[in-house]
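Ligand: iron/sulfur cluster. Inputs:
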Amino acid sequence: MSSVHNKRFVDQIMVMFGRETKKPEQFTEKAIQVHQLKRMTNKEAFLNASKEAHRLQQLKSQKWRNRRWATLIFANLLFVISFALDIQILEGALTASRFVGFHLIDLNSALQVMLAHKHIINNLLIGTGTVLLLWVLLGGRTFCSWICPYHLLAEWAEKLHLYLAKKKLVTDQVMDRRLRTVFWVIFALLAIATGYTVYEAISPTGILSRALIYGPGLAVLWVLALLFFEVFFSRRAWCRYACPIGLTYGVVGIISPVRVKYKLESCFHEGDCRKVCLVPHVLDTVIKGRAVDTEVAIGPDCTRCGLCVDACPTGSLTFEVKGLSKLM
Ligand code: SF4
Ligand code: SF4
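Predicted complex:
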């Protein structure tokens, strides 16, 4: 990797922990040429290109969103069906499960348990190792958008929030993204200090997974309160500013080969991708003049949800597996 890419890689990690994005100082020669060319394009031509981009966007399908929703619903239903029919395909819940006999333990939960017990538990390591390998291969925060049941509910709540915001009935209270890192540390310290996995009691991921399988309890009210907060006060607040699971899987995603790739040359910079993204800071590279190279990998906080791939009118954002050709 060149020094430009090394710097970008480190920056993306810092941004995931909550640092603000900023305009890069170093660019590759090729990127400088493309940026110059784009600057020379007159405003009217750019506006026309932007209008054309919007027209093309209307014609695009929501292919990745549909695939993702189908996968998320299928994975969560598999738990429900296995329990209801007492078949041993996928037993347990998202926090800890057994898939045809293989132990799977959620990384964040395993970490919390070990912090609470203050030692490394060998049995947990085996289940965690399988899950770690799986999510390294599949993309870290892919867990969020392709598996987490709260993500789906929050996506629907977000649509309601955006509708109300358009009608000027609500506004989005933007918070400091560093909060999520602070919460991660607080929950880790709470586990150490109390000997309990405090976070598990309030994790909407675990609450919803258990509610689906074993039936809802009072804890579901907490999830409803979170959704209410997101609809009326702050867009996608839990996943953006609080959830430690998202940050844990984000760290896993640093070394993942599955990512979204951005191509500078075909981009109109109309920003449709940033409007649909849960973590728009990862797409700072699409802002005019910001891409450090003509091809840039999107950072590890990306949930690989594919909404930007669906939204991009010019195909400038695609999924790829590092070292292999693009997925779509
Ligand atoms: S950030 Fe947390 S709640 Fe949000 S999708 Fe990821 S795991 Fe689920
Ligand atoms: S960058 Fe694209 S794939 Fe990643 S989270 Fe944002 S919209 Fe989803």
